[in-house]
Amino acid sequence: MAVKRNRKMIRTLLTKFHIDDLTIGEGIALFNEYLQAYGDAAVFDACDYADSGHIAIYQCHLETDEEMAERICEEEKWERQPGEQDRADYERLKAKFG
Questions:
Q1: What proportions of the chain, in percent to the nearest 5, are helix, strand and coil?
Q2: Does 68 share its domain with 94?
Q3: Which residues of the chain have pLDDT under 50?
Q4: Are residues 40 and 84 in the same domain?
Q5: CB 28 within 8 A of CB 44
Q6: pTM for the structure as a whole
Q7: In terms of domains, do 97 and 73 share one?
Q8: How far is CA 30 from CA 38, 62, 68, 96, in A?
Q9: Which domain covers residue 69, as residue numbers?
Q10: Distance CA 7, CA 65 (A)
Q11: CA distance 52 to 45
């Protein structure tokens, strides 16, 4: 897996609500409420878990320089780990079996 050096879109959960037995009017009222609270840049995602549906409202933004640097460091660390573990296993087995 190559480290991705492009900025990613970050989604931050703002709220979620159950939609079971929600009428269209109630749904529209809730969306209007969230539109007023979070603006039209907020996005939603409909999910269905264990026969219970809900809507999650997210705010999206591009990674900041700090977030991007932290993510790249983590991804680089993940890429190194398998090779380092393989090398440690090789050295251990080499010492044990010659």
A1: 50, 30, 20
A2: yes
A3: none
A4: no
A5: no
A6: 0.59
A7: yes
A8: 12, 26, 34, 66
A9: 63-98
A10: 9
A11: 14
